[in-house]
Amino acid sequence: MGAEERTFNRIIEAIQDIGETGATIDELSEIVHLERHTLSKYLSQLRADGRLSYKRIGRAKVWFVSKAPLQHIFRLSEDEKTYTEKILSRILSDMPEGVLVMDFDYNILFMNRHLITFYGDCIGQKYYHAIVDTLPESPIQSKIRAIIDSKEEEIEYQTRDKKGRTLEIKARKAENPDGSSSIIVLISDTSEKVRREERIKHLSELHRLLGESVNRSYTMDQLCSTILENVRSVIGYDMGDILIYNPETNKLACSAEIGYPDTEENGRKEEVENWKKSVVMVVNQRREPAFIAFNKDERNKEGDELIRSTNNLALEYNLQEMYVVPLRTKGESHGALLILTGSGRKLSEEDRSLIEGVSEEIAGGIAKIKAEQELRVKASAIEISINPVFMADMAGKLTYVNPSFLEMWGYDTEKEVLGCSCTEFWKQRADVDILAEVLGKGSWIGKLIGVRKDGSEFKTRLSTSLILGTKGPLQFVAVAESRFASNNKKVK
User: Fold this and answer.
1) Domain 195-378, what architecture?
2) Which of 100, 140, 172, 399 would be a feasible disulfide site paired with 185, CB 3.0-4.6 Å?
3) 3-class SS at 457?
4) Of 365, 368, 315, 324, which Cα lies nearest the Cα of 342?
5) Partners of 241 in the β-ladder
6) CATH architecture of residue range(s) 385-484
7) Region of residue 92 (left: phi > 0; alpha: psi -120 to 50; beta: else)
8) Phi, psi (rounded to 5 degrees) for 168
9) What distance lies between CA 192 and its chain's CA centroid?
10) Are 487 and 456 in contact (CB under 8 A)?
């Protein structure tokens, strides 16, 4: 230990011997036997190191051994602070994290401005009461106890404060200039981070559930019922509907609903359905979600169609909130999702954000089922058509034939013809290559001679088109007209 450090220790010991009332420079000068000028330099150095602090009483400075150097810095005026103290105080004041110092009895010795903004000035209060509102023997406090008992030098844990915020706590032991120990605590409000993580988790779960629903559903009612159940499993709500929009008729139809009480009166149920449709039509025209929180005093308030219909629904089901989300994808409307909550239940902003976040995926699923249903209808029409229909790939090999084709050409099963070149089923015309004509112009219509399985021939008229995909031609489709066929008579 150098001579200067020994002098520092003598000064600190002298102040401690004098007691908690502190010591003036004159009192210290007599004990440590240093001139005022020399002693003043040592005191300034110790203050700069954070080991001493002072209080100004009148014109005199009374010196103390620092137990909470940070607290002392914030008590000084700007003129009294050293350059280092000014920088440190600004950093502590402006940092977006809480800094707290407490002693081994959990007494708060220092709080920075960030913490004071949230909890008020709690200096002198117990940490477990002021911040987390727990008892000292609670399990969460045992983590701090581990530092006090010297079992841990540093700890990290997560807890909730008395206002429900999620806090990330980092604490470590620190030795004070007077030889005692304190605990420095860094406190971060991670509520927003936790909310974001929860939102991502819920959004991922919703996307997974919706993807499964779309893949497994065969009908629109099945899809919409599953979607309502999936959304309710992630976001608690009381009642919900999905209304499907038909652009051809410009009308809405309720495809599925969940949570509503049974209504035996058909007339009443129809009236309620009309209120829902009125709400959805207005919201779809606006092309943005509508969130309505109902005030009991204003439920009978007159207004536009949206207000009247929502108020009627609120009175009917004693609603607290309603959230209506248009279901749109690729610029097209497919209906809307209605989420209703009863008294005592609320949709958080995160809940509404989640619903809006999956609305396009729901719309995409509805569009897919619509397209599949339309295809099934068309496929059924083709299947039962009295006219022969066949499809062929770009090499001209048959990929599909309907029953009328098999009947006209005299075959029993599809297996006999699928994979064969379509040109095997008619006589080639010398004046035209039909497949080349379709590939070049996109379609061909003309008469030809069909050849049956038994070799007999018949006249028919063929209409052929090219089906195009996003990356080019996909296949040929053709329709033969049966009225030209002569029943099994050999064409001369």
Assistant:
1) 2-Layer Sandwich (3.30)
2) 100
3) strand
4) 315
5) 257, 338
6) 2-Layer Sandwich (3.30)
7) alpha
8) -105, 120
9) 12
10) no
CA proximity to 105, closest of 136, 135, 131: 136
| CA pair distance 333, 10, nearest whole angstrom | 84
Q: What are phi and psi of 2, to 5 degrees?
A: -75, 170
User: How long a stretch of residues is the chain?
Assistant: 492
Of the candidates 101, 99, 102, 67, the residue with the CA atom closest to the CA atom of residue 180: 67
Q: Which residues of the chain have pLDDT under 70?
A: 1, 50, 67-78, 80-85, 88-89, 93, 136, 177-179, 263-266, 296-303, 482-492
Q: Which pLDDT belongs to residue 489?
A: 46
H or E element that contains 40: helix 36-48
The pLDDT score that the predictor gives to residue 302 is: 52
Q: Tell me where in the chain the CATH 3.30.450.20 domain(s) lie.
A: 87-189, 385-484
Q: Are 326 and 355 in contact (CB under 8 A)?
A: no
Token pair belonging to 168:
């990330």
Give the bridge partners for 477, in sequence order: 391, 465
d(CA 482, CA 489): 14
Q: Does the domain at residues 87-189 carry the CATH identifier 2.10.109.10?
A: no
Q: Where in the chain is the domain with CATH 1.10.10.10?
A: 3-65
pLDDT of residue 483: 61
Q: Which of 90, 95, 55 is nearest to 72 (CA)?
A: 55
Residue range(s) occupied by CATH 3.30.450.40 in the chain? 195-378
Q: What is the pLDDT of residues 275-316, one digit of tens each?
A: 999 999 999 999 999 999 987 655 445 557 788 888 889 888
110, containing H or E segment: strand 108-111
pLDDT in tens, 168-184: 899 998 877 666 788 88
Q: What's the pLDDT score for residue 297?
A: 57
86-108 burial string, b = 16+ CB within 10 Å, else e?
A: eebbeebeeeeebbbbbbeebbb
pLDDT at position 55: 81
Q: Could you give the CA distance from residue 14 to residue 6 in angstroms, rounded to a whole number?
A: 12
What is the side-by-side order of every strand in the sheet holding 239-246?
251-258, 239-246, 332-342, 319-329, 290-293
Check residue 264 and give its pLDDT: 57
Q: What is the CATH number of domain 3-65?
A: 1.10.10.10
pLDDT of residue 56: 83
For residue 219 the two structure tokens come to 């009908």
